[in-house]
Amino acid sequence: MKKKHIRNFLILSTLTAIGIHGINKAIDATSPMKNLLKNEKGNFYNWRYGNIYYTKNGKGSPLLLIHDLDPASSDYEWHKVIKHLTKNHTVYTLDLLGCGRSDKPNITYSNFLYVQLITDFINHVIRTTTDVITTGESSSFILMACNMEADCFGKIIVINPSNLRELCKTPNKQKNTLKYLIDAPIIGTFIYNLLYCKKNIEINIYNKCFSNKNMIPSTMADYYYESAHLDQGNGKYLLSSIQSNYTNINIIHALKKITNQIHLIGSIEIEGMQSIIDSYISYNPSIESSFISGAKYLPQIERAEKLLQIIEDLL
Fold it and tell me: Which phi-psi region, left, alpha or beta, contains residue 98 (left: φ > 0; alpha: ψ -120 to 50)?
């Protein structure tokens, strides 16, 4: 009787695995069908850990735009401000490794990995001191990169910087177990596909990114969904690293040493943003700050004109 139960369990497990694998493959096939994230207008930087998609437009002093660190993010986050910025600047955007049209290798994504990416990109592609505008969870590695290679950077503008206390969280046994689960070939991909299904992306945009829900672009969730699922769901490797705190780093020591001009822009509607910005200034009093109303996490989309006014004054 026991042998029968074991056999039935194995059959059921096999059929379940086959079914999950089929669902994963169906998502891989259908998610890029709208082809919103085209790469014809960009180029690829052949970096040591993978090809990095980037664009270059305009004339003038170089300006590099860095999107939020999330598998669903891409340079789409800057689409409302690029055209205006190209009037006076040579504007570069890129999709970070693990995001959008860039490669998504099966590696552990660390803060220092992105420090290397940004400094290498400036040194090898832009090839001169560059002003940088970054947003959200990408702020920490931009500031770390500036601390390590200050000559690469001019002015740094950070939109809604990361919480310094959250950045101090490190990997542990429990987090490594979570990473192992998400990285797993079939079940991990299935978990990732559930977390980044179209509905969950829409909910996240609605709750986190916008103060005025009427300002949400009708196609935004489609761009995020496509970005998350390009390269057969391999964005899960970045997700597992983020969730396991590998992309975190304590930047306080670096923050104290940076002499480059830093300006923080905070959205008033984000709870606790005033305290977050105050904490940065407490470690480096030369940091300047301003606030923007009527926006949450992505003012570059929700309040693009207002944000551009602030940026113009700073650059």
Answer: left
Domains in the chain: boundaries: 43-314
Q: Quick check: 122 and 151 in contact, CB under 8 A?
A: no
DSSP β-bridge partners for residue 267: 292
Q: What's the CA gap between 237 and 235, in Å, rounded?
A: 5
Q: Which two tokens stand for residue 150?
A: 């200050």
Give the pair of three-digit tokens for residue 247: 């992309």
Strands 50-57, 43-47: parallel, antiparallel or unpaired by DSSP?
antiparallel
- Nearest one of 236, 233, 242, 209 to 76, comparing CA atoms: 209
Q: Given strand 130-135, what is the order of strands in its sheet?
A: 43-47, 50-57, 89-94, 61-66, 130-135, 153-159, 262-267, 288-292
User: Residue 304 is encoded by which pair of tokens?
Assistant: 């693009």
- Per-residue pLDDT tens for 213-241? 999 999 999 999 999 999 888 999 999 99
Q: What is the pTM of this model?
A: 0.91
**In a 10 Å sphere around its CB, with 0-12 CB exposed, 13-18 middle and 19+ buried, how is residue 305 labelled?**
exposed
CATH top-level class for 43-314? alpha beta
